[in-house]
Amino acid sequence: MKLETRELNWAGNLEYRASQLLYPTSVEQLQEQVRAATKVRALGSRHSFNGIADTSETLISLSKMPEVIEIDAKAMSVRVSGGTTYGALADALEQAGFALHNLASLPHISVAGAVSTGTHGSGEAHGNLATAVSAVELVLADGSQLSAKRGDPQFDGYVVSLGSLGVMTHLTLDIVPSFDVQQTVYEQLSWDKVLDNFAALQASAYSVSLFTDWSGELVGQTWLKRRVGDGLVDDIDQGKFGGFPATAAMHPLPGADGAICSEQLGAAGPWSDRLPHFRMDFMPSAGDELQTEYLVPREHAVAAMAAMRQLSPVLTPLLLVAEVRTIAADDLWLSGNYGRDGIALHFTWKPQQQSVEAILPQVESALAPYAARPHWGKLFAATAADLRGMYPKFNDFIALARRLDPDGKFRNEFLQRNIFGA
Questions:
Q1: Residue 254 pLDDT
Q2: DSSP states of 343-382
Q3: Which domains, and CATH codes, for the chain?
């Protein structure tokens, strides 16, 4: 369709510039649309906060493509259509007795979009969502199809690819047997004790999230998601970190309704209902927020958090909430955790983009000693000149993209600024 109305991202901070938005209903129709376009980008669930999915000509949404969820119990894998949401996939897997190793905070995001941007989930032993990918299927710039599987040459460049190689129509993901999780929220842990014992805290659950505004001496909330049967020692209840367990369902934002969040208070339930922070049948907010995130090597976790606390006078007035999570290392070329275990420093900002963008250079300067990599789908100030040295396979990725898309059909201003302008 020709764009006759304003098309916005989920947060409402970006209006897409494309002249048309197409909704193919088959791979064959998608091939024709890509072949005919001069400039084209795939549009996912619109949860990016920058122009990564934008283009000057043609946007293509996979939301009307046939939903595919094909479970192979023998191979312990699932083939899924790229436009499928993680919530829909998780429900189907759970009903069949299977699970993914990780889920992001929001189950509303599309599989292809999350994988392509290195979106991660949480847990010190768990790689990001893209690490589950064992095969990808793409429609290339000339309309042809390409499949690549784990073990193929350059496969690790195909997964977190920022939409620059082609339209990711289907992915095959590793699965595991289903498992139950208990989620408990603790309030007002001591920052001093958390920083003194950060490794022990992160090891105390399958997934741990710290929520803070970076001010004061106390962490606002700590969310622990424990796999039932893991038998982990509850150092928090023993007072090692201070604080106390919440007695009602909590929301990461102080005063917000905890009813829209995944179930807490230690009640055991399926992984699909506990690993995300929010329930699939509720949107966590109206989207009236902005987000930034940086991935920092695990060995710098304490120093990086201390640096953010020192920046509290700058950060806190613009924050809705910040979150700290851990992610395991991987081999995916443009992943924020390529080659290193890490933590994620996530910032949910008030919808004041000009003010937020004005302080991002200061945030990145404070984190520069700790080799912080920005999340590709969120707001950041760094450019290709800054990013090139952060990714050992950066030039290899550029070569791969130029081979598959020599005329730059899938490139846009975002990619030129942050990848190809190096």
A1: 83
A2: EEEEEEE-S-HHHHHHHHHHHHHHHGGGT-EE-TTS----
A3: 69-178 (3.30.465.10), 180-383 (3.30.70.2520)
